[in-house]
Amino acid sequence: MKRVKGYKFKKDNKMRWYGETDLKNKIMKVNKKKAKKSNVKGELLNSIVHEHTHARHPKMHERTVQKVTRAMLPTLSRKQKQQYYSKFA
């Protein structure tokens, strides 16, 4: 997992979306409750990696972020997954 400098990681179970990245204030938020309620296995990890990709590549188009996230998820080791989860513990 590549670091994103200066970002704060927050869970916000009241927001409408699964996740959100505020590039100006350097805040990544994830709605853990919504992701866990989803019937899609791994939705929480998907949301975290997706928002992390936004932070690393702020000018990347949304569809490209989705493609990168989908390609990256199967390649993550158990340790890498744990590192992502720990940011929003």
Structure description:
By secondary structure, the chain is an alpha+beta fold. It has one domain (8-87). It has four helices and three strands. It has helices at 32-37, 43-56, 62-72, 78-87, and strands spanning 8-11, 19-22, 27-30. Strands 1-3-2 form a three-stranded mixed beta sheet, with helices on one face. Helix 2 crosses helix 3. The protein is globular, with a radius of gyration of 12 Å. The chain starts with 7 loop residues before the first strand and ends with a helix. The relative contact order is 0.18. The mean pLDDT is 90.
Q: What is the terminal-to-terminal distance? A: 16 Å
* Separate helix tally: 4
> From N to C, what is the helix and strand string?
EEEHHHH
Strand order, largest beta sheet: 1-3-2
Q: Uncertain regions: pLDDT < 50 for 5+ in a row?
A: none
Structural class: alpha+beta
Count of distinct structural domains: 1
Largest sheet: 3 strands, mixed
User: What fraction strand?
Assistant: 5-15%
Summarize model confidence as the mean pLDDT: 90
What is the alpha-carbon Rg in Å? 12 Å
Q: Please provide the count of β strands.
A: 3
What's the shape?
globular
Question: Any key phrases for this structure?
Answer:
single chain, 89 residues, 4 helices, 46% helix
In short:
The chain has 89 residues and is α+β, with helices and mostly antiparallel strands. The protein is built from four helices and three strands; from the N terminus they run E-E-E-H-H-H-H.
